[in-house]
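Recall the central idea of this unit: under ordinary conditions, the amino acid sequence of a chain determines the structure it adopts. In this exercise we apply that idea directly, starting from the sequence alone.
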Amino acid sequence: MRMTSRIMTSCAVAVLAALSSGAASAQSVNLSGRFICVVDCRAGLVGNPAFITQNGDEINLVNEAGQPARAWPDWTAPASRIWVDAWEQGAVYSPDGMTLQFDDGTIWRRALPPPPYPVVPPRVRG
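Accordingly, the structure predicted from this sequence is:
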């Protein structure tokens, strides 16, 4: 009898530890920024900007058609997926946060600013 209660106690502790660690590992990267829709865009709007604003687990999105939605880390994979309730779909994001692929096939890539102009030293006349 003693061994059974120890095993049950150990299992209960393991389950509680697993459940409580989910929030700590959620959202491993900040997705805030400007993205470009590159594949399967709504209404054929390939190349249109999309935006994500993230504050912790609170995520706001605006897709390439200008439709806003709220999202949060997907409970099935909080460190690599988000769930967008209004669009009834999730999205997996790359570890570096540069790409999102939605369940319907739409892909957003982070829009990077153009490189800075090279600094040209002034010519010395002489």
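The chain has one helix and eight strands.
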